[in-house]
Design a protein that fits this description.
Helix content is 27%, strand content 20%. By secondary structure, it is of the alpha/beta class.
């Protein structure tokens, strides 16, 4: 991977991104998304179709740096999420940093109705987390509790501010959010996006694909500051 800004040269992605400090006593939220040059967040319904080797390597790097990964239930289904897996070098880096071998994945689901026997749950190295709302049926929450730690964050819907605070109470300082666009928009609207890692895919998509934020408007003063520009394989 090569840095273009602020200083040019080859960089180690682990060093370029690094771990983040808590913000105002809560965990830091790093949002990782990908979009085509013309702003499409997916191709044929999947963001993975925009990716390549460089994007996958960065995806793994950001997971290696995280305490917990947050993903929406719809994205989990569409993208075919499985348990978190990391290469031996990343596991060794985490061990030396005092972290577990892989970060757990937290799924945001209002209804709390997922395939509890799927490999995502059954083969997870670290027990997953299900973030849901009090309106979910007690039986569904109980079923989730058999295979995951359940966090109730909200009454009629999932309150991501409360969810992030709950993750902090579980000891997670670095939250990596992987979308999709609905979760990303909610995080931005709640002023919870501390760092956006946006991979620009060298593709033109057109059509009616959603952008990386699809939902409530972000805060009017949610202006970003460019901290680095990196490139690899045209991404």
């Amino acid at each position: 991977m090569r840095a273009l800004f602020p200083d040019a040269g080859d960089v180690d992605p682990l060093d370029a991104y690094g771990r983040l400090e808590r913000v105002d006593g809560r965990p830091t939220v790093r949002l990782n998304m990908i979009a085509s040059v013309d702003g499409a967040a997916y191709v044929a319904g999947r963001s993975g179709s925009l990716g390549g080797t460089a994007d996958k390597n960065l995806f793994a790097t950001l997971r290696a740096l995280a305490d917990v990964i947050v993903v929406g239930a719809a994205t989990m289904r569409v993208e075919g999420y499985g348990p978190a897996r990391l290469a031996d070098a990343a596991r060794e880096w985490r061990r030396e940093s005092g972290l577990g071998p892989v970060p757990p994945i937290a799924v945001v689901t209002r209804a709390c109705r997922l395939e509890w026997r799927s490999p995502f749950f059954a083969e997870a190295e670290q027990r997953p987390i299900v973030i849901t709302a009090a309106c979910a049926l007690a039986a569904d929450r109980a079923a989730a509790g058999e295979v995951a730690d359940v966090v109730v964050a909200g009454d009629e819907g999932v309150d991501l501010c409360r969810a992030v605070r709950c993750l902090g109470e579980l000891g997670h300082d670095n939250v990596l959010a992987e979308g999709g666009p609905g979760i990303a928009a909610q995080l931005a609207a709640d002023d919870l996006v501390d760092e956006l890692c946006l991979t620009v895919s060298p593709m033109l998509v057109g059509g009616d694909a959603r952008r990386i934020l699809s939902g409530p408007a972000a805060l009017s003063d949610n202006r970003l500051e460019l901290t680095r520009v990196l490139t690899a394989d045209g991404y």
